[in-house]
Design goal:
Number of strands: 2
Strand content: 15-25%
Largest sheet: 2 strands, antiparallel
Distance between the termini: 39 Å
Shape: elongated
Order of helices and strands: HHHEE
Number of helices: 3
Strand order of the largest sheet: 1-2
Structural class: alpha+beta
Length: 95
């Protein structure tokens, strides 16, 4: 909960998912950290069928490109030499 009201629920959820969760899981005796509340980031693609038709782009191509651009995968902490490194994979959309 952000009592200062400086961060949205979506921001707080992202902080928990990408930072706090991995740090808390390294605490001895913690088996799992479950996320509750907040908003998961979502993206919506609104298409204009007339413009797609004008450019000769089939809907299947748009669907294929959107799926190919969302190759981000989760990560974990890697411990080496007493240091911890957060590893995650990022998908990059090629033009």
């Amino acid at each position: 909960m952000d009592r200062s009201h400086r961060r949205s629920l979506a921001e707080l959820r992202s902080i928990q998912d990408w930072y706090l969760r991995y740090q808390l899981e390294t605490v001895p005796g913690v088996a799992e950290v479950a996320t509750i509340g907040g908003f998961v980031k979502q993206y919506q693609v609104n298409l204009d069928p007339n413009k797609l038709r004008a450019y000769g782009i089939p809907l299947s191509t748009v669907i294929e490109k959107v799926r190919a651009s969302t190759n981000e995968v989760g990560g974990r902490l890697l411990e080496m030499g007493g240091a911890q490194y957060m590893i995650r994979g990022l998908g990059i959309c090629a033009p």
